[in-house]
Design brief:
By secondary structure, the chain is α+β, with helices and mostly antiparallel strands. It has two domains: 75 residues, Glutaredoxin (3-Layer(aba) Sandwich), CATH 3.40.30; 167 residues, Glutathione S-transferase Yfyf (Class Pi), Chain A, domain 2. It is 57% helix and 7% strand. It has 14 helices and four strands. β1, α1 and β2 form a beta-alpha-beta unit. The longest helix has 25 residues. The protein is globular, with a radius of gyration of 18 Å.
Length: 256
C-alpha cells in the first residue's frame, strides 16, 4: 500500500484529509505545495489534478481528488482505525446532507475573511497585470479572485460571509442538540464533523469565536475535536494562519 498526499499546510480542505489519514493510522508520503508559488498550477500537478487545487491523494497509482471524495474513499477502502461513515443508512444520509451543506455554505464563506485578513498583502504587492494573470490561471478560483481584486472583498461580501458562518454555527448547534452530542451525530465523530472542523478552527484562529459565545455546545464540540489523537498531527506547526502570517497575528492582537 502506498499513499501519497499532495496538500498545503493551511488549506482547510487538506486539513480534512490529513485528519482522516492520521485518525486511521495510515502512513502516507506528504508533498507540501506552496500555493502562492503556484505549485498547484505546474504541469506535473495539473496532470494528476486538472482542477489545480489541493488536496490530491494517490493510492497505489490511482488518483483521487476533492477532499470530500477522498475522505469517503479512505473510510471505504481502509477498515483500520475508527470508521467515520455510519453503518445505518438513515444516519449515513444525514451525514451526507450535512457534508453537502458544509461544502456549499461555510467552506466557501470562510475563504472571504481568510483572504481579506491573511492573503491580501501578498496580492497587493503584485502588479495589476501579474494579479490578473495569476487569477486567470486558476481553473476553479478565477471568479473568486477577480471579485476580490487587489483591494480585497468589499464590506458587503464580508458581511454575507459572516452571516453564512453564523448560519453554520446555528446548524451545528441544532444537530448537536438533536443527537445528544458531543459531536454532530452523537458520541463519535463522522465525516460531517471532519468536514466542518477546519472552518471552525479557522474561525477560532482569526478571532470570530464570538459567533458561538451563546452556544456552548459548539464550544464543547470544538474541545472534543481537539481532544482527538489525530488533531495534533493534522495541525502541525504552520497549519494555522496566525502561525504562517505574523502580520495577521499582530493585527488580531491589536484589535483585542
Amino acid at each position: 500500500m502506498a499513499l501519497t498526499l499532495y496538500n498545503a499546510p493551511q488549506s482547510t480542505c487538506s486539513q480534512r484529509v490529513r485528519f482522516v489519514l492520521n485518525a486511521k493510522g495510515l502512513p502516507f508520503e506528504e508533498h507540501r505545495l506552496d500555493l502562492f508559488a503556484g505549485d498547484q498550477l505546474k504541469p506535473d500537478y495539473l496532470a494528476i489534478n486538472p482542477n489545480g487545487v489541493v488536496p490530491t491523494l494517490v493510492h497505489d497509482g490511482a488518483v483521487v481528488i476533492d477532499s470530500s471524495v477522498i475522505m469517503e474513499y479512505l473510510d471505504e477502502v481502509f477498515s483500520e482505525g475508527p470508521r467515520f461513515v455510519p453503518a445505518d443508512p438513515v444516519a449515513r444520509a444525514r451525514m451526507r446532507s450535512l457534508m453537502r451543506f458544509i461544502d456549499e455554505v461555510p467552506a466557501p464563506a470562510i475563504r472571504v475573511p481568510s483572504y481579506n485578513l491573511a492573503f491580501l498583502p501578498h496580492f497587493q504587492a503584485m502588479s495589476e497585470e501579474a494579479f490578473r494573470a495569476m487569477a486567470e490561471s486558476k481553473p476553479l478560483r478565477r471568479e473568486f479572485l477577480l471579485s476580490m481584486g487587489r483591494t480585497g472583498f468589499p464590506e458587503a461580501e464580508m458581511t454575507l460571509a459572516m452571516k453564512k458562518l453564523e448560519q453554520t454555527v446555528v446548524r451545528m448547534d441544532e444537530a448537536i442538540a438533536a443527537s445528544g452530542g458531543p459531536f454532530l451525530q452523537g458520541g463519535a465523530p463522522t465525516l460531517a464533523d471532519i468536514s466542518v472542523m477546519p472552518v471552525i478552527v479557522r474561525m477560532d484562529d482569526i478571532r470570530v469565536s464570538h459567533l458561538w459565545a451563546t452556544r456552548p455546545a459548539v464550544g464543547a464540540w470544538l474541545d472534543a475535536v481537539r481532544a482527538q489523537p489525530a488533531f495534533r498531527p493534522t495541525y502541525y506547526s504552520g497549519s494555522l494562519l496566525t502561525e504562517k502570517y505574523p502580520h495577521l497575528r499582530e493585527q488580531l492582537a491589536a484589535a483585542c
